[in-house]
């Protein structure tokens, strides 16, 4: 799993698996967060920021949808 690769410090391998996962489900905020972590470990802060921001955007969108009342 990608998580095991991260734990083993195989950051390139983990990033690749998270990228594959995001191709299957680009709306999974957790995958964006974990890939952001892999980017940071690989010394790519700009990519890490972009992925983290996307993950937060997805969480914000999800939260906004759950807070809508039937009248909205």
From TrEMBL:
Gene3D superfamilies given in the database record: Tetratricopeptide repeat domain
Organism of provenance: Rotaria magnacalcarata
Protein name listed in UniProt: Tetratricopeptide repeat protein
InterPro entries, sorted: TPR-like_helical_dom_sf
């Amino acid at each position: 799993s990608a998580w095991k690769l991260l734990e083993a410090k195989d950051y390139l391998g983990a990033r690749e698996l998270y990228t594959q996962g995001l191709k299957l489900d680009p709306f999974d905020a957790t995958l964006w967060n974990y890939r952001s972590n892999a980017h940071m470990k690989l010394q790519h802060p700009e990519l890490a920021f972009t992925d983290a921001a996307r993950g937060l955007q997805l969480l914000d969108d999800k939260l906004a949808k759950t807070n809508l009342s039937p009248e909205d």
